[in-house]
Amino acid sequence: MAVKIRLSRHGKKDYAFYHVVVADSRAPRDGRFIERIGTYNPNTNPATISVNVDRALAWLNNGAQPTDTCRRILSYEGVLLKKHLQGGVKKGAFTEEVAEQKWNAWKAEKDAKLAGRKQQICDEKKQLVKAGLEAEAKVNRERAEAIAQRKAEEAAAAAEAAAQAAAEAAEAEATAENPEA
């Protein structure tokens, strides 16, 4: 029986997430599986990956073959590095404690990079929101200035019309008082 570590698709159309499963290679993609060892959600930024490292390592040691995508996911999570370090321990290149220290140091560095990336994305979103609010405030100020200018022009036109009407009324009164002039 050929055992594969592969992805099983779940979720809605155009919004898929995946389970990382260990399955017989002859089983359907979303069908029967032996064990679910993690999840992968590409819809978040950065993608959310959760893998049970110990179970994935056990399956790799028992001969399970990961697909190309799962190989990248396992490598990203450090499962393949841990397997490589275990090979070094078996050959006597270093001890189990040194291998564990190397893996923990790599994992801490990886987590720090991921946290930095998440913070960078969050900051970029905040800057975009701030820029949007500033642009909206600028547009609102320009509209308010245009409205104020239009009202001032209307008031000036109304005052001019009132002055002209008053002048005409005064002229009409003057002609009414002095009809011979």
Strand order of the largest sheet: 4-3-2-1-5
Oligomer: single chain
**Shape category:** rod-shaped
Structural class, by secondary structure, is: alpha+beta
Please compute the radius of gyration using only Cα atoms: 37 Å
Number of domains: 2
The top-level CATH class of the largest domain is Alpha Beta
**N-to-C SSE series?**
EEEEHEHHH
- Indicate the CATH topology of the largest domain: S16 Ribosomal Protein, Chain: A
Please state the second-level CATH architecture of the largest domain: 2-Layer Sandwich
Instruction: Please give the share of residues in helix.
Output: 55-70%
Specify the biggest β-sheet.
5 strands, mixed
State the low-pLDDT regions, or none: none
Number of helices: 4
Report what the structure shows.
This protein is α+β, with helices and mostly antiparallel strands and 181 residues long. The protein has two domains: 3-93, Ribosomal protein S16 (S16 Ribosomal Protein, Chain: A, 2-Layer Sandwich), CATH 3.30.1320; 96-161. The protein is built from four helices and five strands. The chain has helices at 53-61, 68-77, 79-91, 96-177; strands spanning 3-12, 15-24, 35-41, 48-51, 65-66. The protein has a five-stranded mixed sheet with strand order 4-3-2-1-5. Strand 1 and strand 2 form a beta hairpin. Helix 1 (53-61) packs across helix 3 and helix 3 packs antiparallel against helix 4 (96-177).
